[in-house]
Write a structure and sequence with these properties.
single chain; alpha+beta; nine-stranded antiparallel β-sheet; 9 strands; globular
Length: 158
C-alpha cells in the first residue's frame, strides 16, 4: 500500500546544523557519523534540543559524484561561533509530506511515490527535501522506524 501524501504548512525552526559531503555509496555510514557528531556536539555545548533530528538534502543526490547534506536538530536558542555546528533557521512553508514506516533501505520506494505524486499533480519543488527521524534504531526495531519526508512545494493551479 502506498503511503498517503498530504499538504501541510510547517513552521520555521531554529536549528543547530552539521554539513557533510557524501555519495550514494557512503551515505549510510556518513549519515550515521554525522548524526553521532551532531548529538555529541549539541550535548557537549549544553544546547536544549527541541525536536527530532532532520536531514536536509541541499544538493541533488548524484550517483557519480559527492554532494552536500546537512543533519540538524531544532534548538531552543541561537548560538554563536561553534567549531562544528552552525545556527540557522530551517525555513517553514507549504510541504508535501508522507511518513515512511520501516527500514531506511525502503525509503527509495517512498521517495518514488512522492516523485510520482509531484509529476501527476504538476506541482513544483520549492526547496530541498527533508527527512525527519521520528524515532531511532536505538529505540525501536527496524520495522517500526518512522521517517517523515517533507518536500517544500508550490502547488499547481490546475
Amino acid at each position: 500500500m502506498s503511503p498517503e501524501i498530504t499538504v501541510e504548512t510547517v513552521a520555521t525552526k531554529l536549528v543547530a546544523g552539521l554539513e557533510f559531503d557524501t555519495t550514494m555509496k557512503t551515505l549510510p555510514a556518513d549519515m550515521t557519523a554525522a548524526i553521532g557528531d551532531l548529538i555529541r556536539n549539541t550535548a557537549e555545548s549544553h544546547m536544549t534540543v527541541a525536536g527530532p533530528i532532520i536531514a536536509v538534502y541541499g544538493e541533488e543526490m548524484h550517483p557519480n559524484r559527492s554532494w552536500k547534506c546537512e543533519v540538524c536538530v531544532p534548538v531552543a536558542e541561537a548560538f554563536g561561533e561553534h567549531p562544528t555546528l552552525r545556527s540557522h533557521e530551517l525555513p517553514g512553508g507549504v510541504v508535501a509530506t508522507t511518513t515512511h514506516v520501516g527500514s531506511y533501505d525502503g525509503l527509495k520506494d517512498t521517495y518514488n511515490t512522492i516523485f510520482s505524486w509531484f509529476s501527476e499533480h504538476r506541482h513544483t519543488y520549492a526547496g530541498p527535501p527533508r527527512e525527519v527521524y521520528l524515532n531511532s534504531p536505538a529505540e525501536v526495531s527496524e520495522s517500526e522506524l518512522l521517517t517523515r519526508l517533507e518536500f517544500p512545494v508550490i502547488l499547481s493551479s490546475s
